[in-house]
């Protein structure tokens, strides 16, 4: 926490949930919560409070990244563009060469890289436990979804028992800004029996669930036709193939009780109207990763139809092994083109809408009294009128991030040394 009240003044303040404010200010209380937002002339400066003027900048909520793999930090540009099943196998081989200490160092660096890009909350999936530990250690904000694997049905019972034990161990890292979740990885790496067991375990413990879903043509071939590269790999390992007639990945997860309001579905590239109707009916949220989808799936997710059905959608970057650097505004620009959105709607996907997708809308994603004082100051290229403000903010590169605050605490300042 900051320990003292602070008022941040900037040429523009974008609360996101309310219209922009020219010559605005945000007052942060000593407890790190927002106390007031509005025109600088009307926003109080209590006795003893510190005034910080951010010249030439726009002040907006810290960005919310709905999908990361921060334990993979350091794998930038190490994997070639190959078909998705081969890419996954090469990633597994890279991970096998890392120690637990390596994963922990990667997680810490990944969190700091997010802060430098204006990202203040992450929804991270991984199986090392390093990220949720690093979130707690650094006083960061996010959800750590513990990944579970096991494509053979016979692996289900021991995998569930092991996951239950590991969740108990990881629970010590939770706190007001750090939550624990569980992630049965993907339909090509988790059996239906294991999916059902994990969904039951999550329900018993009140944990959110994240799952990679409908990410590739190969995944669809496996579940719909029991063919393709994933099916061939299963056969070589003696894993029973899905029963025919098959189902789409979305329908298959619904069959096993995985889809609910507490489920975050990651990617969802290959979803037809019936699948989208199922996702809307089950009230899931979606982590939309435009640049990763383009690299691995070669096509965009149906963002417009998702939003038209009222699905909760937030933006994610995926890992640096897929896309580098982690630039959520670049994701927003690509989402804008995919969904035919205006700049304001694209910015919401990286802030308020992303917070809603994670069930954290009461705490983050906008600038209003009572929410956490998570702020990012972005340098503007010059004087900007309100009509071009959202477009200008959306266009800024990561290097434009001048300052990032988490619960009123400065976690990044451009040019300053950060441990």
What is this entry, summarized?
The model has no long low-confidence stretch (mean pLDDT 96).
Describe this structure in words.
It is a single chain. It is built from 15 helices and 16 strands. It is α/β, with parallel strands linked by helices. The strands form three sheets. Strands 1, 2, 3, 4, 5, 14, 15 and 16 form an eight-stranded mixed sheet that branches. The protein has a four-stranded parallel sheet with strand order 6-7-8-9. A four-stranded parallel sheet has the order 10-11-12-13. The model has no long low-confidence stretch (mean pLDDT 96).
Structural class: alpha/beta
As a percent range, the share of strand residues is: 15-25%
Average pLDDT works out at 96
How far is the N terminus from the C terminus? 18 Å
The strand count comes to 16
Query: What proportion of the residues is helical, as a percent range?
Result: 25-40%
Q: C-alpha Rg, in Å?
A: 21 Å
Q: So what's the overall shape?
A: globular
Largest beta sheet, briefly?
8 strands, mixed
The count of helical stretches stands at 15
Low-confidence stretches: none
């Amino acid at each position: 926490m900051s320990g003292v009240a602070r008022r941040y003044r900037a040429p523009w303040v974008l609360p996101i949930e309310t219209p922009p404010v020219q010559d605005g200010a945000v007052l942060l209380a000593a407890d790190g919560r927002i106390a007031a937002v509005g025109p600088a002339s009307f926003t109080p400066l209590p006795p003893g409070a510190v005034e910080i003027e951010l010249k030439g900048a726009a002040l907006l909520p810290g960005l919310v990244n709905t999908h990361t793999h921060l334990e993979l930090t350091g794998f930038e540009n190490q994997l070639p563009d190959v078909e998705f099943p081969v890419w996954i196998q090469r990633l597994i081989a890279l991970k096998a060469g890392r120690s637990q200490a390596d994963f922990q160092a990667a997680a810490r660096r990944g969190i700091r890289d997010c802060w430098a890009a204006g990202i203040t909350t992450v929804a991270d999936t991984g199986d090392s436990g390093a990220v949720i530990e690093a979130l707690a250690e650094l006083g960061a904000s996010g959800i750590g979804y513990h990944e579970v694997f096991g494509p053979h049905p016979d692996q289900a019972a021991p995998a569930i028992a092991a996951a239950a034990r590991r969740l108990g161990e990881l629970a010590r890292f939770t706190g007001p800004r750090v939550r624990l979740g569980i992630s049965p990885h993907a339909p090509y790496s988790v059996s239906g029996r294991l999916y059902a067991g994990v969904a039951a375990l999550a329900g018993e413990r009140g944990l959110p669930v994240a799952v990679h879903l409908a990410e590739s043509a190969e995944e669809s071939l496996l579940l719909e036709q029991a063919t393709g590269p994933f099916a061939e790999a299963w056969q070589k390992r003696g894993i029973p193939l899905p029963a025919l007639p098959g189902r789409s990945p979305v329908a298959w997860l619904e069959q096993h009780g995985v889809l609910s309001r507490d489920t975050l579905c990651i990617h969802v590239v290959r979803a037809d109207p019936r699948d989208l109707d199922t996702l809307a009916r089950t009230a899931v949220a979606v982590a939309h990763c435009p640049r990763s989808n383009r690299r691995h799936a070669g096509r965009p997710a149906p963002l417009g139809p998702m939003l038209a059905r009222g699905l909760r959608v937030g933006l994610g970057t995926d890992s640096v092994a897929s896309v580098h650097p982690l630039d959520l505004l670049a994701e927003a620009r690509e989402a804008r083109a995919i969904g035919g959105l205006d700049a304001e709607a694209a910015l919401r996907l990286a802030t308020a809408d992303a917070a809603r997708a994670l069930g954290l809308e009461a705490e983050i994603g906008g600038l209003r009294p009572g929410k956490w004082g998570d702020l990012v100051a972005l340098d503007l290229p010059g004087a900007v009128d309100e009509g071009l403000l959202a477009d200008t903010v959306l266009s800024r590169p990561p290097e434009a991030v001048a300052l990032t605050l988490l619960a009123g605490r400065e976690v990044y300042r451009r040019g300053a040394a950060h441990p």
